[in-house]
Structures are given as structure tokens and as C-alpha cells.
Specification:
It is built from four helices and eleven strands. The radius of gyration is 22 Å and the shape is globular. A six-stranded mixed barrel has the order 3-4-9-5-8-7. Strands 1-11-10 form a three-stranded antiparallel β-sheet, with no helix packed on it. By secondary structure, the protein is of the alpha+beta class.
């Protein structure tokens, strides 16, 4: 019985050491990663749910985008893209359609996209007609929507949403 107790103690000690090393390594790793904290705006959709908005700068304009953790890909309003990009092509991405739209998709390169302190250069963007989203938002007294920030950007930068602080953190 004594031998079994010693073995269990040794296993517990090893587990604690590994756990400390893992936590220490993670802490050291995050020191090397730059954290970018971006404020979020939580809007109420007539007591039928909430959306998170983030201010973006695209084509030199300050606009708003919905943060959508369920969207596999970020998309931008077709009218915004056609206004600023001459070379748009038809997209073959069928997953670009979101719950907001299922119309034809275009693609093009956004030279510079800013989400707070996160700067993406030459972002390969998909364009969808988001006019119905903007119309709904405006009817509810909210700002118009220029895009949807989806899983491609959120995953790439290990994004974390803090609902209490209304912030979005990117780790670069």
C-alpha cells in the first residue's frame, strides 16, 4: 500500500510540474505575441438577439462591420467594393454566402483593411450585396454595415471576444 501511495504522489508531482511548465510556456509565448484590443459595440435587435459591431477603416473610410463567429469567411458590401476596386472578378467560393445574403459573389483585393490596431494589407476580399442588412440596421436606428468579419480573420489572429468588457482581442 505504501508503494502505491508513493507512486500516486510521484504522478501528482509530475502532473503539477508539467502543468506549471505548460502555463509558464503559454505565458512566455503570449509575451512574444502582440495583443491588439479593439472596442466592440453591442447592439440590441429589438429584444430578438444581439449583434457585435466593430469599427473598420477600409478604402480610407471609417465604417462598421458585424463580427460574426458563425461566418466562415469575412465579406464586404458589393457596392463598396465596386466603388473602389476596378478589377473585381466572379468568385467561385460557394461558402461565401452567409445568412445575410445568397446573391452572386465577387472578389477583389482590398489594399488596406484596419480593424482597430490590426492592419491587413492586400486582403483578398469577397463581396456580397449587404444592402438588405444595412436597410434593416438603419430601420432599427443602427449604423449601416460595410462588412462582416468572419472566421478567416478571427481564426488567423486567435481572436477572443470579451462580452463584459465589449472588446475583441487579436493576437498577432
Amino acid at each position: 500500500m505504501y508503494w502505491l501511495t508513493v507512486q500516486i504522489d510521484q504522478l501528482v508531482n509530475r502532473y503539477c510540474i508539467v502543468k506549471q511548465l505548460t502555463e509558464s510556456t503559454f505565458s512566455q509565448l503570449t509575451l512574444y505575441m502582440r495583443t491588439i484590443t479593439v472596442p466592440l459595440i453591442l447592439i440590441n435587435l429589438q429584444d430578438d438577439g444581439f449583434h457585435l459591431l466593430v469599427e473598420i477603416v477600409v478604402f480610407g473610410e471609417k465604417l462598421f462591420a458585424v463580427v460574426d463567429t458563425g461566418a466562415s469567411r469575412s465579406v464586404f458590401d458589393k457596392s463598396l467594393m465596386t466603388k473602389h476596386i476596378q478589377e473585381l472578378s466572379m468568385s467561385e467560393e460557394t461558402q461565401a454566402a452567409t445568412i445575410f445574403s445568397t446573391t452572386e459573389t465577387l472578389q477583389g483585393i482590398i489594399p488596406k483593411l484596419k480593424i482597430g490596431g490590426l492592419i491587413l494589407k492586400h486582403y483578398h476580399a469577397v463581396a456580397l450585396d449587404l444592402q438588405s442588412v444595412t436597410d434593416t440596421y438603419l430601420q432599427l436606428g443602427h449604423p449601416s454595415i460595410a462588412g462582416i468579419i468572419g472566421g478567416d480573420i478571427l481564426m488567423q489572429f486567435h481572436a477572443k471576444i470579451d462580452y463584459q468588457k465589449s472588446t475583441l482581442k487579436f493576437y498577432k
